[in-house]
Amino acid sequence: MAEFNQNHIGIDVISGREDHICRKANAPGKSACGSGPADGAAISCDTESVAGAVSQRACVFCGARVVINPIADALHLIHGPIGCSAYTWDIRGSLSSGPELHRLSFSTDLQERDVIFGGEKKLEAALLELIAEHEPRGAFVYSTCIVGVIGDDLKAVCARVEKETGIPVIPVQSEGFRGNKNAGYKAACEAIFKLIGTDRDATTVPLSINILGDFNLAGEVWIIRDYLKRMGIRVVANISGDSRVADIARAHTASLNAVQCSGSMTHLAKMMQAGYGIPFIRVSWLGADDMSRSLKQIASFFADPVISARTEKLIAQELVAVAPQLELYRRRLSGKKAAVYVGGAFKAVSLIKSFRAIGMTVVVVGSQTGKRDDYEEIRREADPGTVIIDDANPLELAQLMETLGIDIFVGGVKERPVAYKLGVAFCDHNHERKQPLEGFTGMLNFAREVYGSIASPVWQWMPRRKISSETGAGNG
Amino acid sequence: MAKSSVSTTNACKLCRPLGACLAFRGIEGSMVLLHGSQGCSTYMRRYISGHFREPVDIASSALSETQAVYGGAENLKQGIRNVVAKYAPAVLGVATTCLAETIGDDVGMAIAELLEEDPEMRAIEIIPVSTPSYSGGYMDGFRDSCVAILEKMASAEQSRADQGSGRIGRLNLFPGFLSPADIRYLKLVMAGFGLESMIVPDISETLDAGIGPVFSRIPAGGASVKDIRLAGSATASIELGLLNPAGQSAALLLERSLGVPARRLPIPMGIRYSDLLFEAICSVTGTPLPEKYQQERGRLVDAMVDAHKYLFGKRAVVYGEPDFVAALTCFLADVGVQPVVCASGGDGPEFRKTLEVLTRDLDETPEILVETDFSDIRFHSRAAAADLLIGSSKGNHIARDLDIPLVRLGYPIHDRIGGQRILHVGYAGALNLLDILTNTLIAKEQEHLGYGYSYM
Ligand code: SF4
Ligand code: SF4
Predict the structure, then answer these.
(1) Are residues A325 and A383 both part of a single domain?
(2) Ligand 1 site: residues with CB under 6 angstroms?
(3) Mean pLDDT throughout B410-438?
(4) How far is residue B211's CA from residue B118's CA, in Å, rounded to a whole number?
(5) Which of A47, A81, A79, A29 is nearest to A370 (CA)?
(6) Would the CB atoms of B99 and A80 count as touching at under 8 Å?
(7) Is A277 strand, coil or helix?
(8) Contact B7 A421 (CB under 8 A)
(9) What does the pLDDT read at residue B14?
(10) Using CB atoms within 10 A as the burial measure, which of A125, A404, A446, B64 is most buried?
(11) Taking CB atoms and an 8 Å limit, are A130 and B79 in contact across chains?
């Protein structure tokens, strides 16, 4: 009964997903696709996942939590049944240099009676007791799917508790079913925006920026802050890695927003532009090229010759420091093929360049949540012949790894065992990474990690790999 | 005592459909689809895969706002069609998430409609399980799934036919949620007694698979549909874990519906509870304990003597699912470790009673925490001046805080590798736990002294 749709890429996809995969044409203007979208320009994206597909995506709540949770001195209370909070307890490697309230998982743990009679009372009591116990500087209350259905009035409860406790208590409208992760990013931006500007005494800080869309995984924000400091630029708030409620409250005093994870944070940057007149630029701290370009962009914004000179010097120094080792990896990795499947599209673009810098080609690139513009950018950056995929599932990824002879897969931990079973090396570029991959040092770590997996002697013991074309249980 | 607060901080329980996903994974050629929104299934895949380090495909009916308002039956049907098209499962578990339960979707009816519309779907065992997480935890989802599987698949006709042909020497084993290594061990035990057995669920291969030349969409292994249909013809059923309600017992279900005598036992961790398992098998089969297991037991007792001085009076905190906690507590008490906190995110009158009996003769009565969370466990561990923690990796924060070691056992273990290969059960499992426990305490002491002694 299994129906096979060998699509234009030569893999079997679930019906309804054909337009989410395409191949960049070898010659401009020509499409290599049969039934699929022409040349990646019109790939389907930013839609609901197909029912029955095993999407790698999470939900609105997940998107919101990823963005807000690193605020280390805030209370993050998940209003819902227990699973939603249990699964997100300390799953991200966002480090804090001080308080670590964000590493605890708070839930109202809704029970059947709450579902029937409503959970507002419980929520209020939970907030009051937790605020009394932990003395946070602010609180975020995340709604989950069933809260959206039972119709608790989060806003009203938060307003009451805010009044009673004197700290900001902000509802996050993150019911899982209201769209995909992108909707969660948006909900997060809106919640964070409520905090911005609440410090009314703060005055404008000259030569300063906010870092948006960096979550301080494995301490990455600290690397970037160090660079900026050496350039003579102050950082008002990092949103949201290693941030504090007070930083965010005066984030409106910065002169510029540098937005990395554009998918999640552009909305916030736009609101800040509209509300406080703060311009923003898009940056990426991943890979030596993008890192250099981003620092130069920031320097040129301030149009200060001293800063520019410092920036040039810093970049030169840092590049020299990593060049010999990078060259070593480049020689050893040259000609290898990578597949990239990540959450956000900005990262995919940077990764194409990073792999190029170490002599490798990216032959598959995809994201969970990329939008039209993102895919346009990916298509521009990708080599001809690259397969571009939106909201993939393990079956599709496994087939791509197999048919395209991938040497390393870059993704999140959910994809890791699939890669390993197929004898493909793996690099964790998700929120759980333990190695900083940003900045110049991060580029070196990245090369080292890629090399460490590809060059491992274990692969020689793999049986010749082959995917069963049969569905159902195999004999593997 | 129950949790001291309204809210939960660092939950010591997991959500109900997760258990369904784990149980169905032990059935050959099966897939699971969660009826709800996308996030839940992605989170559960991550949670399972992080422990077992295996690909775990769990489909979702991917409900969105419209269906949350108007009902999700159409998405569910489409989801099932897509899963069947791409995975061609023999068995498809359909478990609900909180969302589907809250909006009140009638899963049974949707499946009936689907079978009406697509009659060829009847070739597949589509088994719905209701798993709202706002009542009950993952072991409820696990046990309910086992019951649902047997209810749907074990047939009376089949069993009568087999009895007619005089088939004996078959045993049904319902191991509960153990590690793949545990299941492999139990299979060897069955074989050692010369028994044919059906193990539901059997995750020994499906959640700890080797790398073969072929990558299959659904991993090989698991209890076969054929064997499950024969469950009614077994001599007896043995079920491990007995603190869940009787309605969640697959063994009792078979006893009631098909007359297969049921034996419910605690999880065979430690010497006392392992004895219970071996005695039960001996009595069911009427055979003496095979030489091999006599030797294994002898070796365990010998090791317990070797280790006793390092263990005596050490103060342990145990947490996890009720059956797991009870079995470990029994084991600790039998080797001279003092359990000081026995904690579970679950509850049940049997749990408390069992623990009270187990610890009656100890010098100190442990604090028994039910429906608890890790915040309370931390509080009581500190108050009890514990020497070590035993349980899943989720106690790691407490261990760091209190500067005491954590012995990672059970599920989940997300910050180490090899959780799927930990042997907990039987004499061999007890020996393994004993060695781990003892060496952990010795290592801590050496660290504490500041010099590593060379002999002991
Ligand atoms: S909604 Fe329910 S099923 Fe889904 S993750 Fe939360 S607790 Fe688990
Ligand atoms: S219930 Fe909703 S919010 Fe919670 S994990 Fe599932 S999809 Fe996300």
Answers:
(1) yes
(2) A 81-84, 145; B 15, 17, 36, 40, 43, 97-99, 133
(3) 97
(4) 36
(5) A47
(6) no
(7) coil
(8) no
(9) 95
(10) A446
(11) no
* Chain A CB contacts of B411 below 8 Å: none
Q: Would the pLDDT of B160 be above 70? A: no
CA distance B110 to B71: 11
In this prediction, residues B318-329 reach a mean pLDDT of: 97
* CATH number of residue A273's parent domain: 3.40.50.1980
Q: Ligand 2 within 6 A of B261 CB? A: no
Q: How many angstroms separate the CA atoms of A384 and A355, rounded?
A: 15
A242 Cβ contact partners less than 8 Å away, ≥ 6 residues apart: A70, A72, A94, A95, A96, A97, A216, A221, A222
Range B68-86 average pLDDT: 93
Instruction: Flag if B214 and A61 touch (Cβ within 8 Å).
Output: no
**Count of structural domains within chain A:** 4
The residue behind tokens 């002491």 is B445
Can you give the pTM of this predicted structure? 0.94
**Predicted confidence (pLDDT) per residue in A52-83, tens digit:** 888 777 889 998 999 999 999 999 999 999 99
Nearest CA to ligand 2 atom 6: B40
Interface test with B, best of A57, A177, A418 (most B CBs within 10 A): A177
Query: Are residues A103 and A181 both part of a single domain?
Result: yes
pLDDT, tens only, B42-68: 999 999 999 999 999 999 999 998 888
Single residue among A255, A280, A310 that ends a domain in this structure: A310
Residue A463: closest CA among chain B residues belongs to which residue?
Answer: B213
Reduced to 3 states (helix: H, G, I; strand: E, B; else coil), residue A469 is coil
Quick one: average pLDDT of A253-260?
A: 96
Tell me what the mean pLDDT of segment B95-103 comes to: 95
Ligand 1 atom 2 nearest Cα? B98
> Domains of chain B (ranges plus CATH)?
16-153 (3.40.50.1980), 156-285 (3.40.50.1980), 301-449 (3.40.50.1980)
Model-level ipTM above the cut of 0.85? yes
- One-letter amino acid for residue B80 of the chain: I
Confidence grade of residue B322 (pLDDT, cut at 50, 70, 90) = very high
* Ligand 1 center to A81 CA (angstroms): 6
pLDDT at A7 exceeding the cut of 80: no
> If contacts are CB pairs under 8 Å, which of residues 371-430 in chain B contact chain A?
375, 394, 397
Token pair 């959206």 is found at A148
Q: Ligand 2 mean position to B390 CA, how many Å?
A: 30
**CA atoms lying within 13 Å on the CB side of residue A135:** 1
Q: Are residues A171 and A228 in the same domain?
A: no
With respect to residue A14, please indicate whether it lies within any of the assigned structural domains.
Answer: yes
Q: Is the pLDDT of residue A29 over 50?
A: no
Residue A399 inside a domain? The answer is yes
Q: Please say if the pLDDT value at position A469 is more than 70.
A: no
| CA distances, B10 to each of A71, A106, A349, B70, B231 (Å) | 18, 6, 37, 34, 40
Query: Same structural domain for residues A174 and A221?
Result: no
Residue A281 and residue A408 in one domain: no
Q: Is the pLDDT of residue B403 over 60?
A: yes
Asked whether residue A464 carries a pLDDT value surpassing 70, the answer given is: no
Count of C-beta atoms within a 10 Å radius of residue B65: 16
Tell me the torsion sign for CA atoms B323, B326, B330, B335: positive
Question: What is the extent of the structural domain holding A324?
Answer: 319-461
Q: Reduced to 3 states, what is the DSSP secondary structure of residue B118?
A: coil
State the Cα torsion A403-A406-A411-A415 to the nearest 10°.
50
Q: Are B268 and B327 in contact (CB under 8 A)?
A: yes
Q: Is the peptide bond between B412 and the residue preceding it cis, with omega within 30 degrees of 0? A: yes
Q: Do residue A301 and residue A324 come from a single domain?
A: no
For residues B101 and B134, give the distance between their C-alpha atoms in angstroms, rounded to a whole number: 10
Tell me, yes or no, whether A48 lies in a domain: no
Within a domain: A469: no
Q: Chain B partners of A177 at a C-beta cutoff of 8 Å?
A: 37, 63-65, 67-68, 99
